[in-house]
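Worked Example 4.2. Read the sequence first, then its structure tokens.
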Amino acid sequence: MESEQTGRPSRRKMKIARVSIVDQVCASIKQDIADGIWKPGDKIPSEAEFADMFGVNRLSVRMALQKLNTLGIIDTRVGEGSFVCKFSLKPILSEISIFYEGEDKYRDVQQLRNLLEYECTRLAVHSATEEEKKELGEALKHYNECALALSKDPYTPEVLANAVDADFNFHYKVVKMSHNKLYKDIYYMVQQLIRSHITELISTRNRRRYEAGLPFIGEDDTHNKIYNCIINSDTEALRAANDEMLGIVPIRGMDVIE
């Protein structure tokens, strides 16, 4: 658009957003925490001290601290002051997980698990400590015990629930072994969706085998394969084991009964 007076293109007027004092104070404190000036567990200055530091009134500081408290960045205790929290996305992300629930989301969750679990397992192959591998071995042992019980009785809700807990615990340990905090938080956030997916998957598979009169799958269970991939640093076999575990590639005797 040209100006009628000058014949030159006119500039479009844009509204300039004003940043409130509260937001400025909040951003400054948050940045100091991110920079490590105050670490998790540290007590931060009082409202009065911050008001003096920033040259603002105490109400603005109080509102900024309330905002940080709501975000889970600090914890304000009556009579004690405010302390830096070990920040996590869990409380925030868990609030929105409900929007991804529903029977039609089964394939979506399967694809999400594929992305997260495969990548975390791949990272775990290289980053897992000996102690973590030992703990994963214990988790696998517990899973196998629960899986054996489920293979003998796939219709009792309590037996299924125990197997789901053990299954999720195994995978969550692998996710934590990736040493990627964001992956861990996201996995924790969607755990209800993952648990629902695990429930549907192992319930269907075990009922098929039970009704077909097939024995416990034992060492051929994909969880054992994934564990061995991590222990033996075998990334080549990992992709196939992951796809079988999630049902992306059908397994004979589990997804296909002949």
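Now turn to a second chain, presented in exactly the same format:
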Amino acid sequence: IHTNYVEYVKRETEGTMQAFLLEHINKWLVDIYCHKVIRLSAATQDYDGSIICNVHGVNPKCLAIGKKKMEQLQNGGHAFTKGAYYIGKMVWSKGYKELIRLLSDHQNDLVGLEVDLFGSGEDSDGVQEAVKNLELIVRVHPARDHVDPIFHDYKLFLNPSTTDVVCTTTAEALAMGKIVVCANHPSNDFFKQFPNCKTYDDSNGFVKATVEALTEDPALLTDAQRYELSWEAATKRFLDAVELDNHFARKFSESSSRKCMSASSYLQRKVQDTSACLHQAVSGSEVFRRLFGAIPGSLQPDEELCKDLGLAIHPKKQR
């Protein structure tokens, strides 16, 4: 589970009721289809028997950039010549609202701070309009890949978002040797092990962490810390969490003792099988798909997806 859909829905109009329904639909589907649930962080919806383990890594290019920056610092060079930035899809729920509010409330405490925002999205115009009211210098730029050279010289990554589960850009910033200031939130628990991660509990804590970060150099990451951010480490954590050997051992045990299955276990199995059949049946109905929030006309793959997958193009999808 790597996306906090319930939290996103809560922020929509009449989101409380929609989030309540979504939470129960999620539980129903996970119960009938999933053998094991791995939550990237405790920020996601809870499920019975689930475990929390971050099984995501970063682009190797980020680690290479960070290694080069650390070498520059060790040789006494100025590795970071720029101040603070944030990168993310430009929608209010991705932390932009929280960041602009923090900057607005503490402009006198953050005099001299310059912030660059990078992103594209449906709220781009609103973000650009909001920063015009700030006395601080806040520049808004189109989206770019995080490994773009334009980001290499920034020292401070600001991320107040609390809708993420494990923010990829935060992990990338740490891998690139930057200092990160983020909220003390379950989505950031994994990052607290790194010396360059500064968390805050309130707006005053945000100011303190930001000012400190601007006046100090990032700590040098150890090889072990760099490894924890890699896909190699993430894959190992994933395999350990899945416990495939134990799963197949349990399946063999279940099949050999199926005759001894209790009445309650048998009934539970039948209810799950029936639920799965019901879900598969209604999933083929446009009416029920629309009821559960599907995009109209999305039952069949569109022409572009058919080409990507090598499928025959559905007659209704041909232009």
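Notes for the reader: The chain has a mean pLDDT of 89. Strands lie at 38-39, 51-52, 82-87, 114-118, 137-141, 154-159, 179-183, 197-200.
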